[in-house]
Amino acid sequence: MKDSMDKIEKLKSFLMLTPEDPFLKHALALEYIKAGDEPFARDLFIEILNRDPSYIGSYYHLAKLLERAGDTASAKIWYEKGLIASRQADDSHTYNELQTGLEELING
Predict the structure, then answer these.
(1) What is the count of structural domains for the chain?
(2) pLDDT confidence of 5, banded at 50, 70, 90?
(3) pLDDT tens figures, 35-63
(4) What is the CATH number of the domain that holds 54?
(5) Domain enclosing residue 28, as ranges
(6) Averaged over 78-92, what is the pLDDT?
(7) What is the Cα–Cα distance from 35 to 41, expressed in whole angstroms?
(8) Could you say which of 41, 50, 76, 86 would form a disulfide bridge with 95 (CB–CB 3.0 to 4.6 Å)?
(9) Is the entire prediction scored with pTM above 0.85?
(10) Residue 25's closest CA among 3, 5, 52, 65?
(11) Among residues 72, 81, 57, which one has the least CA distance to residue 104?
(12) How far apart are CA 99 and CA 73, in angstroms?
């Protein structure tokens, strides 16, 4: 936990220099998940994707987080948005990952 908190502080200091950097925000959200603060991580992922829908790396993590929180309806929406964005980006790896996540969600 202390390691995550140290990483969180470092990432926050980097974000002070480049506050809109989606990579740094994504990394910060992942550290918040490790630290047990999934609500804050959720907000960061949503902020990233609302600002830059083409940042396809965040869709899967957001959908999984929502799934863990029991918000399956929202998880399904974000999986579907991610499928569209990854198809537009011609990223078959991310598309397949999102498709698998969505199928697991739907089929239990």
Answers:
(1) 1
(2) confident
(3) 999 999 999 999 999 999 999 999 999 99
(4) 1.25.40.10
(5) 2-107
(6) 97
(7) 10
(8) 86
(9) yes
(10) 52
(11) 72
(12) 15
